[in-house]
């Protein structure tokens, strides 16, 4: 088991659902019209149900239920709904077992939701255009961990892997030690398999080490690194992870006052 086995697992993953492919084709032609995006989602009853369940999560604390896709787009914006669509595809494509990482499947889904919330609320106040790209990525940034978890669960080293993760060793270094790839690299491989655009692939591939990214992708990679430093399978906005993410944000040249306010707001809402 290892690198070659991971690659074979990715190759065996089925194509994205037709509705997701249609949506990504819309985005490949530029920013789509709202009504076209809504139409694609509404034509898929399962996708519609998954999105409405996601947006009505207690984490968002709306006083009234969101009952239509159009409402969801109006409240969350097209980039977030794109993220919800991609997240729905993640749920329908994979048989989750996140026990090798020492967390439940529900905890994994909650982490993904918190990551996307932080990226959306933080980056929309910095650069709306960049946020439109970063928010969908945030929904999927740790999808490679699903594949690594599958690999580890069928190995002889599951207990040792879990022990190291729970001891808060570096997540990416632990993944590489046991499988030859970090989850960011696996996610990039999966994005290529699904024919996502090159920008998606390069941002996630270099998110562990943004300094290695091409200049055009570097700020995106830095934003992803900040978010996953703050919220990950080991820490959900703990004091330690919050502090480390602030230090990274500072080192990357971000204005941290907006970031701090966003994190504190999410902590309060999620009771963290």
Structure explained in plain terms:
The structure is a single chain. The protein is mostly helical. It has a single domain, classed as Hypothetical protein af1432 (Orthogonal Bundle), CATH 1.10.3210. The protein has 16 helices and no strands. The protein is globular, with a radius of gyration of 18 Å.
Short description:
The protein has a single domain (3-95, 103-270), classed as Hypothetical protein af1432, CATH 1.10.3210. The chain has 16 helices and no strands. The chain has helices at residues 3-12, 18-28, 34-42, 45-55, 69-76, 78-93, 105-123, 128-140, 144-153, 158-166, 171-179, 183-193, 198-205, 215-230, 239-251, 256-270.
Identify the CATH homologous superfamily: Hypothetical protein af1432
Computed structural class? mainly alpha
| Strand residues, percent | under 5%
The shape is globular
Care to count the β-strands? Answer: 0
Oligomer: single chain
CATH class, please?
Answer: Mainly Alpha
